[in-house]
């Protein structure tokens, strides 16, 4: 995807040729390193490589700060998404590095249903980890391979950031500065130390896509356009949330297209961008199952390609943009959206896999980002998603994780008001305007969804160098650069507190979960699936031979419905009725209770957070109780194991494993 070339002014060009070039200014305020980087492409590559090493070192230091990660035994370390990724990686390892025979119909992930693993999940990182493990001959534990390999891969995001900034500014020094700002921004380090997180692969691919896209806008060759499209296709294939990130990018490009009347897909080779995406959406199972071909970004790309080629829309407007072209584009987009919605309803009636995301975003706008006191004001999908890293952000969090970039982004936006107002069509204006718009929009949305801070940390270093490169005298610019770097480093040093990482791998939690899993490995019969919450289920899946009924990735309506049935049944039905649900609907033999986690889902179950305890006639009242007389003796539930680590400290066990015996026993 590339923007059309600017209209040449040959009279001005002729006058420019007659002007003698000015003598190069004496570089009194630029360092020797800056001059070297500016003069040599190899020094630029060396500088970026050094930044990759620094970022990886910082991530390694974070991992080494958690004692639990020094273990060669993964049992107890893996829960929720990482444990699911670990399970899929193990399956690929067992198959010799290729998809296993039941890859498209796995019987264990959501028992008793069959699961199309690459169709339901963004499988990609798993192959990378499995191949790394096999290359080492199995001499290093799989989770250790995953930890070190993905630290290196995640650090490669700086390559895309630096290359993107270098393409937009035309100077290698600014590319290095953007890369340096990226690695000293706290928001760039959401995942260090966590074993197996999908964005560790998807983010570097998206950053590479931005760099290749900016390059394609300059060189306009077929190969450059194909590479930019391939990079974003791989990013989309390796993380569910990337589809929304890409949608933001295309929306900003589409807004510029509407404003100027010049489409970024007007050049001959630009057709390869939507073409590669369309082919990818059919070949990649998860994109095919989500009907990405019918998504809003694909609709916008089609409009930007087709409308400029219509005879009625070929005539360009004045500097304010082509109103006729914009009107035709919007009408066509509305027709496409309606047609795609109808086709989607025919191909996958009533699915709505991503409906919970829209529900949550609309609810956040409606409630100004505040979680309603009454959970029944939200759909279950919105309640399920509105937690943890998807909680509402705040100005404090933005300042903490993004530092001075938060202050510079609005200034950069002011510099783009004039191009947006006038609808200027110069190629450099288009790339800068869209980049700044994307960065500022992401920054605003990070106030609604905390997880988007990581995306803002990827974009705002580039936005910052665009602002610094286009303003100030050389002396003033040097002071701004030094001030921004010093301030950003100071903020980062304060913001890096890794408390969440240490809590996740807390020794007591690791010991309790590890002890529970080992008991299951040694004492449970091989037959019989396990019912547990979606966080703990994947740990059972990864380390035992038992199937589970829930899994942590609820990007499908089917998975959310199963989680809702489990949670609502726990908090609203009697112990006998809940046991019947587990045995009949889920066909589960065992029940594993994580009391610490399940006490925190009462809001999702429809109970107010200020309610003191579940109703006394519910399964939650007995199963989550701290009293052995309540959780230890329940008709229909035979207690097999309780995590002894907590009992040794005089506290109720967090993990309780039950055999769901027949009624009346």
Briefly characterize the structure.
The chain has helices at residues 10-18, 32-39, 41-64, 80-94, 117-120, 125-135, 142-155, 157-169, 172-183, 199-219, 222-237, 242-260, 272-283, 285-289, 296-306, 323-347, 355-366, 380-385, 395-402, 405-415, 417-422, 427-445, 453-470, 474-495, 499-504, 507-523, 534-543, 557-572, 575-584, 595-598, 619-623, 628-631, 644-647; strands spanning 106-110, 113-115, 529-531, 588-594, 638-642, 655-659. The protein has 665 residues and is mainly α. A hairpin with a 2-residue loop joins β1 and β2.
What does this structure look like?
By secondary structure, the chain is mainly alpha-helical. The chain contains 33 helices and six strands. The strands form two sheets. A four-stranded mixed sheet has the order 3-4-6-5, sandwiched between helices. The protein has a two-stranded antiparallel sheet with strand order 1-2. It is globular, with a radius of gyration of 27 Å. Mean pLDDT is 87; it is low at 2-30 and 316-321.
Short descriptors:
665 residues; mainly alpha; two-stranded antiparallel sheet; globular
Global morphology: globular
Structural class: mainly alpha
| Distance N to C terminus | 67 Å
Major sheet size, sense and barrel closure: 4 strands, mixed
Mean pLDDT metric? 87
């Amino acid at each position: 995807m590339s923007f059309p070339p600017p209209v040449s002014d040959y009279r001005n060009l002729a006058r420019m040729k007659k002007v003698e070039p000015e003598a190069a200014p004496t570089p009194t305020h630029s360092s020797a390193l800056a001059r070297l980087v500016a003069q040599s492409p190899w020094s630029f590559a060396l500088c970026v490589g050094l930044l990759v090493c620094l970022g990886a070192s910082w991530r390694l230091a974070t991992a080494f700060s958690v004692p639990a990660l020094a273990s060669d035994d993964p049992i107890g370390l893996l829960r929720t998404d990482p444990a699911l990724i670990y399970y899929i990686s193990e399956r690929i390892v067992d198959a010799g590095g290729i998809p296993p025979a039941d890859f498209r119909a796995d019987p264990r992930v959501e028992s008793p249903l069959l699961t199309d693993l690459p169709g339901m999940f963004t499988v990609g990182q798993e192959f990378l980890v499995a191949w790394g493990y096999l290359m080492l001959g199995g001499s290093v534990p799989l989770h250790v391979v995953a930890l070190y390999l993905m630290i290196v891969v995640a650090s490669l995001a700086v390559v895309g950031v630096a290359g993107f900034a270098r393409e937009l500014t035309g100077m290698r020094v600014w590319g290095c500065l953007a890369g340096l700002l990226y690695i000293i921004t706290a928001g760039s380090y959401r995942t260090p130390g966590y074993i197996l997180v999908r964005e560790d692969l998807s983010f570097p691919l998206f950053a590479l896509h931005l760099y290749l896209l900016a390059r394609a806008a300059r060189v306009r060759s077929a190969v450059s356009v194909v590479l930019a499209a391939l990079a974003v296709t791989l990013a989309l294939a390796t993380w569910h949330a990337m589809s929304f990130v890409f949608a933001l990018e295309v929306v900003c490009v589409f807004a510029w297209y509407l404003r100027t009347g010049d489409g970024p897909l007007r050049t001959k080779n630009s057709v390869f961008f939507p073409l590669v995406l369309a082919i990818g959406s059919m070949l990649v199972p998860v994109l095919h199952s989500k009907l990405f071909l019918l998504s809003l970004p694909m609709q916008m790309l089609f409009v930007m390609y087709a409308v400029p080629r219509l005879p009625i829309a070929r005539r360009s407007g004045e500097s304010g943009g082509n109103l006729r072209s914009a009107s035709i584009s919007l009408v066509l987009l509305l027709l496409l959206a309606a047609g795609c919605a109808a086709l989607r309803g025919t191909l996958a009636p009533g699915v709505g896999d991503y409906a919970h995301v829209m529900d949550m975003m609309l609810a956040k706008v409606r409630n100004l980002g505040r979680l309603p006191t009454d959970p029944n004001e939200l759909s279950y999908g919105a309640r399920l998603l509105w937690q943890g890293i998807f909680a509402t952000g705040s100005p404090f969090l933005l300042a903490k994780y993004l530092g001075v970039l938060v202050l510079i982004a609005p200034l950069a936006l002011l510099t783009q008001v004039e191009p947006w107002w006038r609808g200027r069509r110069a190629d450099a204006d288009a790339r800068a305007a869209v980049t700044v718009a994307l960065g500022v929009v992401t920054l605003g949305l990070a106030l609604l969804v905390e997880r988007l801070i990581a995306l803002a940390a990827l974009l705002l270093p580039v936005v910052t160098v665009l602002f610094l490169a286009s303003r100030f005298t050389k002396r003033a610019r040097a002071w701004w650069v030094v001030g921004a770097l010093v301030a950003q480093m100071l903020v980062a040093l304060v913001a890096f507190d890794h408390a969440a990482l240490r809590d996740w791998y807390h020794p007591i939690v690791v010991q309790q979960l590890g002890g529970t899993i080992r008991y299951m490995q040694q004492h449970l019969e091989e037959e019989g699936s396990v019912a547990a919450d979606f966080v703990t289920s994947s740990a059972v899946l990864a380390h035992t031979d038992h199937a589970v009924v829930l899994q942590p990735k609820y990007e499908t309506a089917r998975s959310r419905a199963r989680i809702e049935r489990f949670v609502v049944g726990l908090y609203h039905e009697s112990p006998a009725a809940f046991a019947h649900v587990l045995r009949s609907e889920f066909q589960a033999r065992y029940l594993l209770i994580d009391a610490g986690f399940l006490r925190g889902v009462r809001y999702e179950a429809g109970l107010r957070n200020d309610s003191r305890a579940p109703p006394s006639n519910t399964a939650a009242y007995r199963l989550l109780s701290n009293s052995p007389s309540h959780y230890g003796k329940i008709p229909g539930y035979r207690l097999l194991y309780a995590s002894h680590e907590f009992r040794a400290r005089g506290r109720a066990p967090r993990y309780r494993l039950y055999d769901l015996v027949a009624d009346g026993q």
